[in-house]
From TrEMBL:
Keywords: ATP-binding, Cell membrane, Membrane, Nucleotide-binding, Transmembrane, Transmembrane helix, Transport
Keyword Transport: yes
Transmembrane stretches, start-end: 20-44, 50-72, 133-154, 160-179, 249-267
The protein's name in its UniProt record: Thiol reductant ABC exporter subunit CydC
Organism: Oceanobacillus arenosus
């Protein structure tokens, strides 16, 4: 039950609904047994032509028990479902609270489709935990023991048969099918995760699949995944139905045994014949409550696997979030950044992305990080944002280890432009307001002019992911958002790669005017305009191979010098 500990902790918040569900369920079950036992006794008694008042009392008792059973059954359904819906709500909140700090790096460990299947499908699966797993066995146990205790007053032998039947239908038969169920359930969840991943990739990559004429191949893969999922679901359904049929057969077999033993006792004079019909009705009724136990193993295993898949997503929270961080990154001056011998490898990869990287960025300095594609420049920037955790070494902001600072405080005090920037469905105003609260329309319009987007009105529509914007417009809008934030640390990753040279020069002029006293870190493939930088870091294959000012690197005639000569020959024919 270790996998279900998180679910149980969330469930126990609703103690009132749990207790009311158990109480109403017990009353409904025991009154149903009493109702049918009274009916059996009434039939036998009526055959002996008793006084009319005796029959009137029995009939009234049957009606009263029927009313109580119906009301308590309604109460059980009401409180159990209310507790379930509240549990699911609390579970989603609890899961998202644990997931949120991991969100920037979690896609390195999970494909988006699989993650979606866990968040949606597995949480929905856990709705059966309370309704089918948690409280029904408790109710069944109470009802059965009270029934066996009642039956023992009339026949010890029949009570013993009911006890044996209880063990068979609630313990032995379900346990047997539970062992077989694990393999079936695992395959269903795995195939569902594969299908969700395939569907997500198909929808996101539909345009590229059409362009490269690979749509039919992907559709075939998707159809195979769907067919596999349906096949596994069918196997699961057949297994569950066979389990229910077996349990029903065993319960009916127990009732036949009660009839045979009861008849034998009546013949021998050990049991009054008037009670035989009552005992048979008791057996038929009490074993109706064991029917849900046939699918109990399925729901238990399903809940365990769902809880395990959810907990595995947030289990790695200990990577850097296990300790409660109390330090907040706040500064009135531009921060100093120190990177000391860091090593980093992306999740599920063996190749080191960064190896023994060390550098110092003084307060208020302007630093460019350059190098060929795949050299680790963008990764270093993501580590400065603490989107990932270093394997070894340390990163310090104003002499405080970044691992001791809250992520929110780092992001709140940083102007960030990444290679891929997200834009929400709405207006230009809505997307600019993400920078900070309290922005006026005038501030936003002036910033748009600085990035050469004055042709946009603040009420202009932005489609999902900015699909109606060009690549250059997306970058300029992201830069405008960073300018409006006006923090003291700038982390810019290829911010103008899709912008023409004239507009780029204009934008950089505005950036460096606003960041005159700030710390700026610029990742760039382009080597033009770096003469203004205080420091240039040259990286290759995850290592820092050169560093210095533009003049010193050119005089050294090393890697940077060769890169600059190649760029000049390509773009300027020199």
């Amino acid at each position: 039950m270790k996998e279900l500990r998180m679910v149980i902790n969330v469930l126990l918040v609703e103690k009132k609904d749990i207790l009311l569900s158990i109480l109403c369920g017990f009353i409904a079950g025991i009154t149903a047994v009493a109702l049918f036992s009274a009916s059996g006794y009434l039939i036998s008694k009526a055959a002996l032509a008793p006084p009319i008042y005796t029959l009137m009392i029995l009939v009234a008792s049957v009606k009263l028990l029927g009313i109580i059973s119906a009301l308590s059954r309604y109460g059980e359904r009401y409180f159990s479902h209310r507790g379930t819906f509240t549990m699911l709500s609390n579970l989603r909140v609890s899961f998202y609270e644990k997931l949120e700090p991991l969100a920037p790096s979690i896609f390195g460990r999970y494909r988006s489709g699989d993650l979606l299947a866990r968040i949606v499908g597995d949480v929905e699966t856990l709705q059966n935990f309370f309704l089918r797993v948690f409280y029904p066995p408790i109710v069944l146990l109470l009802v059965f023991f009270c029934t066996i205790f009642f039956t023992a007053f009339f026949s010890f032998e029949v009570a013993l048969i009911l006890l044996i039947g209880f063990l068979l239908t609630t313990v032995l038969v379900p346990s047997y099918f539970a062992l077989r169920q694990r393999k079936v359930e695992r395959k269903v969840r795995e195939s569902r995760g594969v299908l969700s991943t395939e569907v997500t990739e198909f929808l996101y990559g539909f345009r590229d699949l059409k362009i490269y004429q690979q749509l039919e191949i992907k559709e075939e893969q998707l159809s195979k995944s769907a067919a596999t999922y349906l096949q596994e679901q069918e196997r699961e359904s057949v297994h569950n139905l066979f389990s229910q049929a077996t349990n029903t057969f065993v319960s009916l077999l127990i009732t036949v045994c009660v009839l045979a033993v009861g008849a034998y006792l009546v013949v021998n004079g050990d049991l009054d014949g008037i009670f035989l019909a009552m005992l048979i009705m008791v057996s038929l009724t009490v074993f109706e409550n064991t029917t849900p136990m046939a699918i109990f193993p399925s729901h238990l295993q399903d809940s365990r696997q769902a809880a395990s898949r959810l907990s595995s997503v947030v289990r790695n929270e200990s990577e850097g979030e296990a300790l409660v961080k109390q330090n907040s990154f706040q500064t009135d001056i531009a921060p100093k950044i120190e990177v000391k011998n860091i090593h980093f490898t992306f999740p599920n990869e063996s190749r080191q992305t960064l190896e023994d990287v060390s550098l110092t960025l003084e307060s208020g300095s302007k630093t460019a990080i350059v190098g060929p594609s795949g050299s680790g420049k963008s990764t270093l920037l993501q580590l400065l944002l603490h989107l990932y955790h270093v394997d070894d070494g340390a990163i310090l902001l104003n002499k405080t280890p970044i691992k001791d600072l809250t992520d929110e405080s780092i992001w709140r005090n940083t102007n960030v432009v990444l290679q891929a920037n997200h834009f929400f469905y709405g207006t230009i105003r809505d997307n600019l307001r993400l920078a900070k609260d309290g922005l006026s329309d005038r501030e936003m319009q002036e910033t748009l002019e600085k990035v050469d987007l004055e042709h946009f009105a603040l009420d202009d529509q932005v489609l999902e992911k900015g699909d109606n914007l060009s690549g250059g417009e997306k970058q300029r809008l992201a830069i405008a958002r960073a300018m409006l934030k006006n923090a003291l640390l700038w982390l810019l990753d290829e911010p103008t790669s899709s912008i023409d040279a004239l507009t780029e020069a204009k934008i950089y002029q505005h950036i460096f005017e606003e960041a005159k006293n700030d710390t700026v870190v610029l990742v760039s493939h382009r080597l033009t305009g770096l003469e203004k930088m205080d420091q240039i870091i040259v990286m290759d294959h995850g290592k820092v191979i050169e560093s210095g000012t533009f003049e010193s690197l050119m005089e050294r005639k090393g890697y940077f010098y060769e890169m600059k000569k190649i760029e000049q020959s390509v773009f300027f024919g020199q």
